[in-house]
Amino acid sequence: MIRLLLVIAVVLTVSCNSAQNATSAKKMTAQDYANTITAEDLKTHLYILADDNMEGRMTGENGNNKAAEYIRNYYMDLGIDSPIEKNNYYQPIPAEFFNGATNGNPSQNVVAFIKGSEKPEEIIVLSAHYDHVGVKKGEVYNGADDDGSGTVSMLEMAQAFQKAAKEGNGPKRSILILHVTGEEIGLYGSKYYTENPLFPLENTVVNLNTDMIGRIGSEKEGNENYIYLIGSDKLSQELHDLSEAVNKKYTNIELDYTYNDENDPNRFYYRSDHYNFAKNNIPVIFYFNGTHDDYHQASDTPDKIEYDLMAKRAQLIFLTAWEIANREGRITADKLK
pTM for this one? Predict the structure, then answer.
């Protein structure tokens, strides 16, 4: 009888522990998943993608292809699906599409996909360009900030969403991770995607574009807790308000709209990949740290990146995407009405 009671006690203990573990997994919050985006992991990725071995990642050249392979292999290792077919993460772009800018070489966008649990037909596109400007006069232009920072932030955001999906916590809408090529020579990768979308553009809810988030801009020295947002209110007040609310709830970064001004002489709104989505009336946000002395110089190297700051900015972007993906109603281009 005593032995039977001991067996029952053990079984009950194991059952309770299993139930507690299951409950614990379900209790993971958006902030918990955001916290898996770490400065250490970002640094590890960036020291590889912005290494001299990548030869400046010029579109159509060997280093660009090496970078694409690194990104693809990361998604394969994590078990994140391709939206094209199993183990095929490349959206090929023919050489002629680049109008002679790649010395006759083709290139590719790299894509990964996390299917939504409730509204899979509604797509949130997270984008960053992985190309840079190559080698000039024997010097490798590593492009650590531009846009190695956005590229590796996307890798980390993807793993956070994948972890949530594996644990049964969404996202409710689908996430398309879009690493575009050809940005530096004319926004070609995003242009190709929007002209040849893997999913109908009318199903694309928003594009959140990450281009340079690893440094402190020259005009912001001494005030690092910020990020420039461009385009958030151009097509959708709803998106802008959501973005503000997410930041207030989680990160409390200064959201600086200086470059969102229609009269800004830099015209940054027209100069990164979100613009090809905005042209198609898809609400966008462009996340940007501003320029600095190393912008488009060989001195844009990974040792100069502010990794803790980059992690915080990447977490903000992830949390904004999380809210868009999991809210009840779809974000709309309400300013077009």
Answer: 0.92
